[in-house]
Amino acid sequence: IFLPDDINPFVPGRECHLDGTMEELARSLPNITYRPPPNFYGSLRLEVVVQRLSVEEAVANWTVPSARRRQPPREGIFPARTLSVEVHVAGVNDPPELDVHETSQSMKEDVSEPVFLTPLFVSDIDAEDHPLAFTFELVLGNQWNLLHMCELRSVFLEDPWEYKLDEDGCLTKGVRRLRFQATTEMFNSMQRGPGRLQFFPTKDWHGAAVVNVTVDDLGSGLGSEFSRKV
After folding, report:
1. Number of C-beta neighbours around residue 198 at 10 A
2. Counting beta carbons within 10 angstroms of the beta carbon of residue 30, is it exposed (0 to 12), middle (13 to 18) or buried (19 or more)?
3. How far apart, in whole angstroms, are the C-alpha atoms of residue 25 and residue 35?
4. Per-residue pLDDT band at 146 (split at 50, 70, 90)
5. Stretch 68-93: mean pLDDT, rounded?
6. What is the mean pLDDT of the segment spanning 46-53?
7. Contacts of residue 23, Cβ cutoff 8 Å, sequence gap at least 6
8. What is the DSSP-derived secondary structure letter of residue 104?
């Protein structure tokens, strides 16, 4: 298997050697399969080398365990024939993944300030520097419960349509639904500081509230979604 130069050549199962009669090989060859390395897409070449063995070489190969059999020589008494097969591996869009530290969190009633929720981090092997869409929405609990977030000056805020940010990039009033675009690096950086999601329960209320978090890669609609209970 010949891969592009920038691909790690140390791939398990990179080479396969079969020794046998024509009849034995005819039964075995249709069962050979190829699986590309993880996350690889592009073109590569499969090379098939067929060579008739001398009696001495055949006996030498069959008198040692299969794991220790040597590769048949390319040059010897009988010439080798090489067949190349060009293979193209089409790329697929892998969905983003969320790493959630805690799926539930508790707090006291009648807090005076919004409470930071535990961080969550996103990864997407296909995204690179392309933005992802992040949506946070309260779907259960008192209708006056609100969400807050800071460090929003560096993101593209889509919802709410009308908003004001203070000097720290914080929403000046809470919302029920928040949606913005940011790169994975930008979002993860927010999770390490004051850019984490904040929850502000309404006064004199206690109970369970659920926040739905959705990440969309804006490519194929593939995404990751989970609910956090507070």
Report:
1. 19
2. exposed
3. 21
4. very high
5. 71
6. 81
7. none
8. B
* Preceding amide of 131 cis, omega within 30: no
Other Cβ atoms closer than 10 A to 213: 19
Q: Which residues contact 175 (CB under 8 A, 6 or more apart)?
A: 146, 147, 148, 159, 160, 163
When the pLDDT of each residue in the chain is averaged and rounded to a whole number, the result is 81
At 142, list the tokens. 């008192």
User: Tokens 């390395």 sit at which residue?
Assistant: 37
Both tokens of 69, joined, read 């059999």
Residue 26: is its pLDDT beyond 80?
yes
Task: Output Rg (C-alpha) for the chain, integer angstroms.
Answer: 29
Inter-residue contact 176 to 146 (CB < 8 Å): yes
Is the distance from CB of 199 to CB of 211 less than 8 angstroms? yes
Q: How far is CA 136 from the centre of its chain?
A: 21
What is the rounded CA–CA span in Å between residue 202 and residue 114? 10
Confidence of residue 7 (pLDDT cuts 50, 70, 90): low
SS (H, E, C) 105-145: CCCCCCCCCCEECCCEEEECCCCCCCCEEEEEEEEECCCCC
Contact 104, 228 (CB under 8 A): yes
